[in-house]
Design goal:
The protein has 8 helices and 11 strands. The chain is of the alpha+beta class and 219 residues long. It has 2 domains: 138 residues, Jelly Rolls, CATH 2.60.120; 70 residues, Winged helix-like DNA-binding domain superfamily/Winged helix DNA-binding domain (Arc Repressor Mutant, subunit A), CATH 1.10.10. It has a 4-stranded antiparallel beta sheet. Strands 2-7-4-5 form a 4-stranded antiparallel beta sheet, with no helix packed on it. A 3-stranded antiparallel beta sheet has the order 9-11-10.
């Protein structure tokens, strides 16, 4: 209960209110083993998935058959909020990163909950909006062909027109996930940019030493 209350969909509800909601709207729950496929690409979502314990990843299979991770979702996150309405088709495989417990709210129950609880409806719309913004940011970085170009755009965006030094709030793994690349590949690209004198790296502090060269990486 406490873990789900931390989910932004339910953070405005008291524990007593949550007990009533779960009793009425949670239709089932299930525990998945590590690396179990919880939902497959192309399947039609019939329920919103609430991760009460554990972690999952969304992944796609590329042309070579390799699994490419799109994102990780940790408890108390949700799976399917952006896809349950409309055609309801899931664009990725959902795979458990570890033993993971999931609770389900069927689509009809979800609609009823939205009608009865304005707080939940607003939180759900906020969640979809945030995920859309994150997706838009990912798509923007996909337009750059090289990892150096992606990282150049990222730090220039953070620095603005005047700042020379920025402090990364995201970890290297989080940035790699945002770019759709592996962490070692990102680390190698950042190291090359440092060796070329374009940036100076000191842990999470990045100093731009050659802004012109950084801008050239965007083309």
């Amino acid at each position: 209960m406490k873990s789900i209350k931390a989910c932004n969909l339910f953070e405005s509800f008291s524990e007593v209110e949550l007990e009533v909601i779960f009793e009425k709207y949670i239709t089932r729950h299930k525990v998945f083993a590590r690396d179990a496929v919880m939902a497959e690409t192309g399947s039609r979502l019939k329920s919103l998935m609430l991760i009460s314990r554990g972690s999952v990843r969304g992944e796609m299979i590329d042309a070579s058959g390799k699994a490419v991770k799109i994102e990780d979702i940790d408890a108390p996150g949700t799976v399917g909020s952006a896809f349950i309405f409309g055609n309801g088709i899931l664009p990725v495989n959902v795979v458990a990163n570890m033993e993971t417990e999931v609770m389900y709210i069927e689509k009809s129950s979800l609609l009823e909950l939205m009608q009865n609880e304005l707080r939940f409806l607003i939180a759900f719309l906020d969640l979809i909006s945030l995920r859309s913004q994150n997706l838009s940011q990912k798509i923007k970085f996909l337009t750059f062909k090289t990892i150096k170009g992606k990282f150049a755009q990222y730090i220039l965006q953070l620095a603005g027109e005047t700042n020379k030094t920025i402090y990364l709030q995201k970890s290297q793994q989080e940035i790699a996930d945002l770019f759709g690349v592996t962490r070692p590949s990102l680390a190698r690209a950042v190291g090359e940019m440092s060796n070329e004198g374009i940036i100076l790296v000191k842990r999470r502090a990045i100093t731009i030493t050659d802004r012109g060269a950084l801008i050239d990486l965007l083309s």
